[in-house]
Specification:
mainly alpha, single chain
């Protein structure tokens, strides 16, 4: 009987973290997609658009409250948990205090501005109460985001998975019940309840993991770590500030057009597949950040480069073939939401294209975060936001939801082209060339999908996905990573097949 294969410490940590993150995120996001389909049918196109506008507004203000604290906690706890656990405890205490203050202040601001925002900005005065109810979720998410970041820094991915599973199991029945009995208000209240449970569970998990790591959370004496806020948290916060608010502003521009909320409903339905398609790459990026952060010193630079290559290669290997399949099946997918949504197939194609383009440089973005070069990240995000807002502002009257979908794809393409050149010095040899080839292939694939009739798209969906997967494996994935993954797969097959074969 073949003995169980042994792997390096880096591979073990990566695989273990990715496995647990996959379990947690898979349960949460899978149920969220199903719940969104049912909720869309119950609320209708306009109601679902209003729900997306409320949660989007809460998310935009939540970025203000977050202040980049979760990312800061991940990086600095990963760096210090082994060599300086006392300072890691100080970082955790400092992040907690700042999260409470920022979350409370921003929640209060949104509560006071809710009537004005609903009437003047969203063109929907009746949404004021729902926005005020969402303030509770905003505060809870500010605390929970920091706690989850700290758990990632501790590489406590099993604990994060447990919290995600519970939240996913709870969110499906609670959201459906809320919509069924109380409509839009019930949907918002359901998200608040699920958020409260998630915060409580992650708080308990964090205390347990700190005890296992021999760390204590210190709320005093953290003044010496205040420069971390200006050096890392501030640019991280400003980077986040250019994402959710930009999407919110673009959505608001679309909502104010004739039939805008209907178009926004189409985009929200299509955009839910962003989470579904990105949940596997998100697992890889979440795991890669603490691994990279813990190996930023010169003595472990080789481990840093290996993690970067592994993450980027696996990300494109997942996103490209899966994205091609979803892109060419856009018509039946949008039909799942009801007959009103069938016309949004082209919107889904644009959303999928933006996901594919945004994913190819995801690992480079994580490397920027791990090395603490957050001002670079801010510059890249600013370019993305400027292009997206410009396209939606000028094209929303004629393109509708397509301006937001394809505008996002174009903005990611511009950011990627500039970003690849901007971080070229940090990329391993050969990675830059593969990124450019990958971007060109995605643009060609998107153009072909848009030009083909819907019936032909459905017929060729599976062959196109298979071809994309093959091309990605042989041309867009690093050769060393490809050989390592295939070798590991063969070893696993031998290990599991030995008992069956009897040899």
């Amino acid at each position: 009987m073949t003995s169980e294969p042994k792997y390096s410490s880096l591979q073990d940590r990566f695989v273990r973290g990715a496995t647990w993150s996959l379990v947690g995120m898979g349960a949460a996001q899978g149920l969220a997609v199903i719940a969104s389909i049912v909720a869309a049918r119950l609320l209708g196109k306009v109601g679902f658009g209003e729900f997306g506008m409320v949660t989007g507004t809460v998310g935009a203000f939540g970025m203000l409250a977050g202040l980049g604290l979760g990312l800061t906690a991940t990086k600095y706890i990963a760096e210090r948990r082994a060599n300086d656990p006392v300072r890691a405890g100080h970082i955790m205490g400092l992040m907690t205090q700042v999260a409470i203050i920022s979350g409370g202040v921003v929640s209060l601001i949104l509560f006071m501005l809710a009537p004005w925002l609903a009437a003047r900005t969203l063109n929907a005065p009746h949404l004021a109460d729902e926005l005020r109810l969402g303030c509770i979720l905003l505060f809870l998410n500010a605390l929970d985001g920091m706690q989850t970041g700290a758990l990632s820094g501790l590489e406590a991915f099993k604990s994060i998975a447990r919290v995600g599973i519970v939240r996913g199991l709870l969110s499906f029945p609670v959201l459906i019940a809320g919509v069924w009995f109380f409509g839009l208000t019930g949907a918002v209240a359901a998200t608040v309840l699920v958020g409260a449970v998630g915060w409580w569970l992650s708080q308990a998990a964090l205390r347990s993991e700190c005890a296992k790591a021999g760390m204590r959370i210190h709320y005093r004496g953290a003044r010496s770590d205040l420069p971390v806020l200006w050096r890392f948290s501030l640019p991280a916060f400003l980077s986040a500030l250019t994402v959710a608010p930009v999407m919110w502003l673009a959505s608001a521009v679309l909502a104010n057009q004739s039939g805008g909320y209907g178009e926004l409903g189409l985009f929200n339905a299509a955009n839910h597949w962003r989470t579904a398609l990105m949940f596997l790459p998100s697992v890889l990026l979440r795991v890669a950040l603490p691994l990279m952060a813990s190996s930023t010193d010169s003595r472990r630079s080789d481990e840093f480069g290996k993690t970067l290559l592994l993450t980027q290669s696996l990300t494109v290997a997942i996103v490209l073939p899966a994205g091609a399949l979803l892109m060419f099946l856009a018509d039946p997918i949008m039909g799942l939401y009801g007959h009103e949504f069938v016309a949004g197939a082209t919107v889904l194609i644009g959303v999928i294209a933006s996901i594919m383009i945004g994913s190819i440089g995801g690992a480079a973005g994580t490397a920027i975060e791990a090395r603490g070069k957050m001002w670079r990240g801010l510059a890249l995000n600013l370019s993305w936001g400027a292009v997206l807002i410009g396209i939606v502002w000028f094209m929303a009257p004629s393109w509708g939801a397509q301006s937001l979908a394809f505008g996002s794809a174009i903005a990611y393409a511009v950011m990627s082209l500039w970003g690849f050149l901007y971080v070229a010095a940090d990329l391993p040899p050969g990675m830059l060339r593969r990124l450019f080839w990958t971007l060109g292939f995605i643009l060609c694939l998107t153009a072909a999908c848009v030009l083909l009739p819907s019936r032909i798209r459905m017929i060729v969906a599976v062959p196109v996905a298979l071809f994309t997967g093959y091309l990605t494996l042989v041309a867009f994935v690093d050769r060393a990573v490809r050989q390592a993954v295939l070798g590991r797969a063969r070893t696993q097959l031998k290990f599991w097949g030995a008992p069956v074969g009897g040899k």
